[in-house]
Write a structure and sequence with these properties.
This protein has 722 residues and is α/β, with parallel strands linked by helices. 30% of the residues lie in helices and 18% in strands. It folds into 3 domains: 355 residues, TIM Barrel; 214 residues, Glycoside hydrolase family 3 C-terminal domain (Rossmann fold); 116 residues, Immunoglobulins (Immunoglobulin-like, Sandwich), CATH 2.60.40.10. The chain has 20 helices and 24 strands. The longest helix has 24 residues. The N and C termini lie far apart (74 Å).
Length: 722
């Protein structure tokens, strides 16, 4: 009997890839001269089943035998999360509004420099705080902005898969660095996939057609994985067509790992395993089943539930040892590439000093991003830019004029510049700056700080009457749009619109500065106010950037990365995941308030000389296109040249336009530049649900060049031959 018991134990230890190797054997995994795969395999071979489970808990204890930490992640979306101030960039939606991939790369490089610098400081310190010591960062969020009410639109990159994909690749490469062997930090894509509703997100089921999945919800993720080589990806809470993403084998294994060749690891969202036990009503199961099914579906890394239930799941046969080792291999391979198992000085990024955190050079990049992100929505009568020499008194009004707007995933606020302070810093010494909040973003106010709404409004009106120009700062804050909080309206909340109307009645020289994350549907402002800017949540240097644009020291060239709908009635139901029903610029029903890609300038650009490399192509050909762009105005400025395509006749409903290229170019007055695009004929394809693949139908396609999706300057056609 005793002999049989020993045999059973040995079988369990050696079954299906679960091995127990003598920890005193040579430590090959620490030999930097060995191939990485051998090192990873050697370490795994030394681990017990319980130690393996511990290392797949993202917030687990240290594996003491090998002194391997399990807690290895942090956040850095638009600022590294730390217990001290780090550089605070504009939110990612604002970065998308720059339409400048090089600048986004530079911003992400700053983020990763600061992340590595903090890590290096911890390594050198004797009493560093025991938190956020890892190099796996949970950014970027690349969920698509189908839903304008989504509370997390500020974290994402707009409504278009092509734009989001380009931005994601630049951001990921900036985070992870360009060393051929080591990662600076590891990027984690969030949230995979079809995730853009906060309400009931732990049990939400998204019913999506095969075509929409491949055309709209997945292309940018593919770009980020295949081209950007992101090392981690997070499975979202929601289900797709009845299957929760945490146990969705088709999504996590068939598509991600097999079709796209993903070599990194999948992590669940916080509490992702718990949603199968307590959230998704039709999928409720035991924790052991939830853990086993998650791992077998392709989820590699998770919460305490993994550590607690993996050993039993293996022993019960619900989880194979081969799959367990595959998950651990994926996680450890990333950690080896981060240099965790190598001598500290051998990693080139160990030389980044903590002195770079929030340094002047990094603040300058944050200022540049904020400047480039600002969108000039309208400018009737050329009210902007304001002439400092002629303004003797300026009224700075609104509940957001003297606030720094923060979101979840950034660091502590350091020296940050509000719009009010930025205007004071940039205006001449002889100009008087008047200030009043004038209203509130939200109707709710703390009981210990009652807000006199009527009194504030009257004060703002009186100051507006006295001033040469009135600047009104309105928008949203974390009480309106944030994680776990979808917006209830696309309009202005609180007393803000009443404030704008009253100020305009008192002073026709009124400029509205919208400081929101998601789009603001404000038709009265669009119709009546002569000049308006979209300034987003602009980071620590946002106040200076706004002032630079208002006073003409910077010529605005931001472009909207989303459609601003004319009314809430124009938006289809939010449980409709088929965008052909009226979502985005591609299928919007009727005229929007402001179109995708829109943004004005203080100068004027002329387009001419559109040329194609060929008028007739095959589906696998590359198309080369050039266009001449000239600044015919009196100011230097940037233009964002946008390339759209459209299938003239199709067997199915196709977009009225699809973005297939863009470039931001700087031009001096009178200067002309040639802008070149190359795009593959395959980008003219749609997903065919009969053949289950992308196909390009023969026939004519419009090729359009313009300054926005609604401002097409030049157009030609190409023909795809059978």
């Amino acid at each position: 009997m005793k002999k049989n018991f020993v045999l059973v134990v040995l079988c369990l230890l050696f079954a299906d890839g679960v091995r127990a190797t003598d920890s005193n054997s040579p430590a090959l995994y620490l030999d930097v001269n060995q191939p990485m795969d051998k090192r990873v395999s050697d370490l795994i071979g030394r681990l017990t089943l319980e130690e393996k489970a511990t290392l797949l808990n993202h917030h687990g204890p240290t594996v003491e035998r090998f002194n391997i930490r399990s807690d290895q992640w942090n956040q850095c979306l638009n600022g590294v999360q730390w217990d001290k101030p780090t550089t605070l960039f504009p939110v990612c939606l604002a970065m998308a509004a720059t339409w400048d991939t090089n600048l986004v790369h530079a911003a992400a490089n700053v983020l990763s420099d600061e992340a590595r610098a903090i890590y290096n400081g911890w390594h050198l310190a004797t009493n560093a705080p025991d938190q956020h010591k890892g190099l796996i960062y949970r950014a970027p969020v690349i969920n698509i902005e189908r839903n304008p009410f989504w509370g997390r639109n500020h974290e994402a990159w707009g409504e278009d898969p092509f734009l989001t994909g380009r931005m994601a690749v630049s951001y990921i490469q900036g985070l992870q660095g360009d060393d051929p062997h080591y990662l600076k930090i590891a990027a984690t894509l969030k949230h995979f996939a079809v995730n853009n509703v906060e309400t009931d997100r732990q049990k939400l089921n998204a019913n999506v057609s095969e075509r929409m999945l491949h055309e709209y919800w997945l292309p940018h993720f593919r770009d980020a994985i295949v081209e950007g080589e992101a090392q981690s990806i997070m499975a979202s809470y929601n289900a797709i067509n009845g299957t929760p993403n945490n146990i969705n084998h088709w999504l996590l294994t068939d598509v991600l790992k097999n079709d796209w060749g993903f070599q990194g690891f999948v992590v669940s969202d916080l509490g992702g395993v718990r949603t199968m036990v307590e959230g998704h009503e039709k999928k409720q199961m035991s924790y052991e089943d939830a853990v086993a099914q998650s791992l077998m579906a392709g989820c590699d890394f998770s919460d305490k539930e993994f550590m607690d239930n993996i050993p039993a799941a293996v022993r019960d046969g619900r989880l194979t040892g081969t799959r367990l080792d595959d998950a651990l291999t994926r996680v450890l391979r990333v950690r080896f590439r981060l240099g965790e198992f190598d001598p500290f000085d051998a990693v080139p990024f160990s030389k980044i000093s903590p002195s770079v955190v929030n340094c002047d050079a990094n603040r300058a990049v944050a200022l540049k991003v904020a400047q480039e992100s600002i969108v000039l929505l309208q400018n009737r009568g050329d009210l902007l830019p304001l002439d400092k020499a002629k303004i003797k008194r300026i009224a700075v009004l609104g509940p957001l004029a003297d606030r720094i707007l923060m979101n979840n995933y950034n660091g502590k606020m350091g020296k940050a510049v509000t719009a009010l302070q930025g205007i004071k810093d940039r205006i001449g010494a002889g100009t008087e700056v008047l200030y009043a909040a004038g209203g509130a973003v939200s109707d709710a106010s703390p009981k210990d700080k009652p807000f006199d709404s009527a009194g504030e409004l009257q004060k703002a009106v009186e100051l507006a009457r006295k001033a040469d120009v009135a600047l009104v700062f309105v928008g949203t804050d974390r009480l309106v749009e944030q994680e776990a909080r979808d917006r209830k309206t696309l309009g202005l909340t609180g007393t803000q619109e009443e404030l704008v109307e009253a100020v305009f009645a008192a002073n026709p020289h009124t400029v509205v500065v919208e400081m929101s994350a998601g789009p603001l549907t404000v038709p009265w402002i669009a119709k009546n106010i002569p000049a308006a800017l979209q300034a987003w949540w602009p980071g620590e240097e946002g106040g200076h950037a706004i002032a630079d644009v208002l006073f003409g020291d910077v010529n605005p060239a931001g472009r909207l990365p989303h459609t601003v709908y004319a009314s809430e009635a124009q938006v289809p139901p939010l449980d409709e995941y088929d965008i052909t029903k009226g979502f985005t610029y591609m299928y919007v029903n009727g005229k929007p308030l402001f179109p995708f890609g829109h943004g004005l300038s203080y100068t004027t650009f002329k387009y001419s000389g559109l040329k194609l490399s060929a008028k007739k192509i095959k589906a696998d050909d590359l198309v080369n296109l050039t266009v001449e762009v000239k600044n015919i105005g009196k100011r230097a400025g940037d233009e964002v040249v946008q390339l759209y395509v459209h299938q003239v006749n199709s067997s199915i409903k196709r977009p009225v336009k699809e973005l297939r290229g863009f470039q931001r170019v700087s031009l001096q007055p009178g200067e002309t530049k040639t802008v070149a695009f190359t795009f593959p004929g395959a980008k003219l394809a749609f997903w065919d649900e009969i053949t289950h693949g992308f196909v390009v139908e023969p026939g004519a396609f419009d090729v359009m060049i313009g300054a926005s999706s609604a401002d097409i300057r030049l157009q030609t056609q190409i023909e795809v031959k059978p």
